[in-house]
Amino acid sequence: MTQSSDKPHTGGCYCGQVRFEVQGQMRDAVFCHCGQCRKMTGFHMAASVARAKDFRLLEDQSLTWFRSSEQAERGFCQTCGTPLFWCEIGGETLAITMGSLDEPDRLKSRAHIFVQDKPNWYDLCDDLPKYPVLD
């Protein structure tokens, strides 16, 4: 996990009906190329991770959870459609989309995962580590 200061990380959806904060550390961004993430975002998903105990919803007027597999669910805004979260059922962490953070530049890029699922129509042109599954 990485944290650039003691200041909480905050974020939310495009329309503002879902807002959150993280009081603890957050992991640097990982880029997921799995088919589910591509379907949810239209490209790959960039996400950080926080401990669930450090996460707090400030506004949840239109937060909706979708069970995307037997092991996980995804949270998004029902009003504007912003993808926000991914979590393992019963897990202790929560993945948070980088695009939903108010200050995403406080974190850095860490790695690519599920690169074997990446389609051929784009290339990975950076020096980040590339893993076939979760790192």
Descriptive labels:
135 residues, mainly beta, Metal Binding Protein, Guanine Nucleotide Exchange Factor, Chain A, 7-stranded mixed β-sheet, 3-stranded antiparallel β-sheet, 1 helix, 5% helix, 39% strand, globular
N-end to C-end Cα span: 13 Å
CATH architecture designation: Beta Complex
| Shape designation | globular
Instruction: Output the CATH topology.
Output: Metal Binding Protein, Guanine Nucleotide Exchange Factor, Chain A
Q: Order of SSEs, N→C?
A: EEEHEEEEEEE
Task: Give average pLDDT, whole number.
Answer: 93
Residue stretches low in confidence (pLDDT < 50, at least 5 long) are none
Gyration radius from CA atoms, angstroms: 14 Å
User: What is the tally of beta strands?
Assistant: 10
Overall domain count: 1
Tally the helices: what do you get? 1
What order do the helices and strands come in, and which of them pair?
Blueprint: E1 9-12, E2 18-22, E3 29-32, H1 35-41, E4 45-51, E5 55-60, E6 63-67, E7 72-77, E8 83-88, E9 93-97, E10 109-113
Parallel strand pairs: 3-10
Antiparallel strand pairs: 1-2, 2-5, 3-4, 4-9, 6-7, 7-8, 8-9
